[in-house]
């Protein structure tokens, strides 16, 4: 049976508050029966509280409604995020007073509170899951949908994958891109040619490796797979290969599965807000122009289904190319608009495919619109010229 994903569109028919996103979030909270499910539970509301001067993370008004629903149901909520983002959240409007519950760092102020999980994957052996997350008995995964420089897109999976582990694991996950070799020095012994490969990238994605002078290193975040470097590099010396790009997405699926494995069945709910979708993630500490029109709010028990639904709905829009930063380049119009922006190998669906293989959910879903947008019927009028 397909999973249900509840959806409230950002679009309204009438200029009435009940047709806007906070009211539609309330309907989704009802449809997911959140109040009935949290009695006596310690509820971790995992969100990204942003960084420095970013303002596109989920507005406190939405968070407060989630917190209130948990309290109404007899649960004990707390909002949580990684330590460096929780520090100074008040600068971005998140306080215990505005949200209605405490805000805690996921792994303690020094990221020393965690549980270890063994699972070999590429360069990673041990995954350190944040203590405040693992200790909670119920998880509300409250995610902001936006672009991401490593994998094209970030939402429900990424909020857990990177936000529920300590910094050491987060860094190791980013390094999975580099595990499979992509630079073969013996095929390019000439130092001038190496220099030309570096200079061929208009985005500064290729640099000399810090450890072995003369070797090349790819900053995957900056690479949109345009292929210019491949025209300069001797055959077989330099690869732009899916295996490197997909590694991070598989790491995200594994990390999310670690976190979700610490909750009993039915004790995790995912809510995603697809508004002010910027080119890159909220970790950057600033807010760029939105590159997709606001889509709406999603809610589901199924993390695979909710990310797929968010991708399918946002994928029906076109990239707002006039809002793309001038340092970026759209060289393909194939696939999801986030691939137009970040390149074809940053396929945002990949994380959901890996997640499904790990048994976290289903790509088959039913999108249930909690308040379908009506076609507003204007009353018939006699034509009167405005002149
Ligand atoms: S594929 Fe394009 S963006 Fe990526 S490293 Fe090569 S030149 Fe740079």
Shape: globular
Number of domains: 2
What bound compounds does this protein have? iron/sulfur cluster
Proportion of strand residues: 15-25%
Quaternary structure of the protein: single chain
The helix content is 25-40%
In whole angstroms, how far apart are the ends? 59 Å
Computed Rg: 22 Å
CATH class of the largest domain: Alpha Beta
Tell how many strands the DSSP assignment holds: 14
The number of helices is 14
What value does the average pLDDT take?
96
Strand order of the largest sheet: 4-3-2-7-12-13-1-14
Q: Helix/strand-derived class?
A: alpha/beta
CATH topology of the largest domain: Rossmann fold
Sequence of secondary-structure elements: EHHEHEHHEEEHEEEHHHEEHHEEHHHE
Notable traits:
single chain; 387 residues; alpha/beta; Rossmann fold; Alpha-Beta Plaits; 8-stranded mixed beta sheet; two-stranded antiparallel ribbon; 14 helices; globular; binds iron/sulfur cluster
